[in-house]
Amino acid sequence: MLKPFSDLNPDNRELGLVADNITVTYRNGHTALRQASFSIPQGSITALVGVNGSGKSTLFKSLMGFVPLATGSVSILGMSGAEALKRNLVAYVPQAEEVDWNFPVLVEDVVMMGRYGHMGWLRIPSRKDHEMVQDALERVNMADYRKRQIGELSGGQKKRVFLARALAQEGKVILLDEPFTGVDVKTEDQITALLRELREEGHVMLVSTHNLGSVPEFCDRTVLINRTVLDSGLTKDVFTQANLEKTFGGVLRHFILGGSELHDDDDSRQVTVITDDERPFVVYGEADDGASEKGKVDKPQEARYD
Ligand SMILES: Nc1ncnc2c1ncn2[C@@H]1O[C@H](COP(=O)(O)OP(=O)(O)OP(=O)(O)O)[C@@H](O)[C@H]1O
Predict the structure, then answer these.
(1) Cα 90 to middle of ligand 1, angstroms
(2) Single pTM value for the model
(3) Does the pLDDT value for residue 4 go beyond 60?
(4) Could you tell me which residues are beta bridge partners of residue 255?
(5) DSSP state of 106
(6) What local confidence, expressed as pLDDT, does residue 288 receive?
(7) 67-88: b or e for each residue (b if 16 or more CB lie within 10 Å)?
(8) Ligand 1 center to residue 242 CA distance, Å?
(9) Is the CB of 52 within 6 Å of ligand 1?
(10) CATH fold of 5-241, please?
(11) How far, in Å, CA of 182 to CA of 160, rounded?
(12) Distances (CA, A) of 40 to 4, 17, 132, 253, 301
């Protein structure tokens, strides 16, 4: 079990993650994020949603201190971003493409890397470090794989190992860059169940995803991004059809099923399927009904491309 937030100043327990007016310009002069601001409280899961190249990974890198800020600041659990990173409070689960899977390292060694910040400079693991690694692997159901080479695992298993590394680190803020890409539905469900548990324990999670259908299912908050923050807040307020169309523009696939394709009577209701090519976001109701039922479908069949 992870430690409670007892080591934090009691005045700061409510504060989660605040990005205030942050701008990131890469060395080639490209500004990937401009004046982006949002805030999320503790005990929440926030979806980070935007098209390819909209700056999601750049935002994660700026929160991790991997790229410098041209403007603005980051505050984490009431302290500066730099202080929170120094105190090992922020854990990062990278995109699969960012990891060199040919590097010969065992699963348990990857998870032990999460403990480095808790060890002395000789990096000799203590009994507690070994216990934390074992607990973390058990929590993601990967304990049986701990002596396996990381490169030999499936995509979903690798994701779970990196999630275990974040747990072993005891990060209070966990940044997950596309944790569901290349993952089957069972693993996705396991990961979302774990994220829900971590939310109950008060963690702050920011999850980038193209899996639009899963956002209303488990993310209580949403940040919409396209080189800046377009909107942020509670998912029920922000994750609307109109906002998604604004965020994705023409990139999104958009199907509408209605009339005789859906009903054998004169029912006027229709199903709107919005997809970024992973699991779609489905809106059911009258044509202009913003308060429609929302859910997921695995595969839109016989859909008319709109
Ligand atoms: N190291 C870099 N140097 C210069 N430009 C970069 C660098 N990394 C990313 N970019 C550019 O910044 C923009 C944002 O990229 P980023 O990787 O943050 O997008 P993303 O939203 O994570 O995309 P995806 O959904 O494809 O993962 C893109 O135009 C990208 O080409």
Answers:
(1) 21
(2) 0.82
(3) no
(4) 273, 305
(5) B
(6) 55
(7) bebeebebbbbbbebeebbeeb
(8) 25
(9) yes
(10) Rossmann fold (3.40.50)
(11) 12
(12) 19, 5, 28, 29, 37
- Structure tokens of 235? 């998912």
Measured between alpha carbons, how far is 293 from 97 in angstroms, rounded to an integer?
A: 36
pLDDT for the residue 291: 39
Q: Mutate which of 33, 54, 207 to test ligand 1's pocket (most atoms within 8 Å of Cβ)?
A: 54
Residue 42 CB-density burial (10 A; 0-12 exposed, 13-18 middle, 19+ buried): buried
| Burial degree of 104 (CB within 10 A; 0-12, 13-18, 19+) | exposed
Q: What angle do CA 104, 107, 113 make, to 5 degrees?
A: 90
Q: How far apart are CA 61 and CA 87, in angstroms?
A: 17
- Give the separation between CA 272 and CA 84, rounded to whole angstroms: 42
Alpha carbon nearest to ligand 1 atom 9, residue: 58
CA of 114 to the centre of ligand 1 (A): 26
Helices 185-200 and 155-168: angle between axes, nearest 10 degrees: 10
Does ligand 1 have an atom closer than 6 angstroms to the CB of 94?
no
Whether the CB of 58 sits within 6 Å of ligand 1: yes
pLDDT > 80? residue 78: yes
* Cβ-contact 40, 207 below 8 angstroms: no
* Cα distance between residue 185 and residue 140, in whole Å: 15
Counting from 1 in the atom list of ligand 1, the atom nearest the Cα of 60 is 18
Residue 211 pLDDT class (50, 70, 90 cuts): confident
Strand order in the sheet with 253-257: 253-257, 270-275, 281-285, 293-295
Ligand 1: which of 23, 58, 62 to mutate, judged by most atoms within 8 Å of the beta carbon?
Answer: 58
DSSP per position, 120-162: -TT----HHHHHHHHHHHHHTT-GGGTTSBGGGS-HHHHHHHH
10 Å CB burial of residue 20 (0-12, 13-18, 19+) is middle
Task: Name the closest-CA residue to atom 26, ligand 1.
Answer: 52
d(CA 103, CA 101): 5
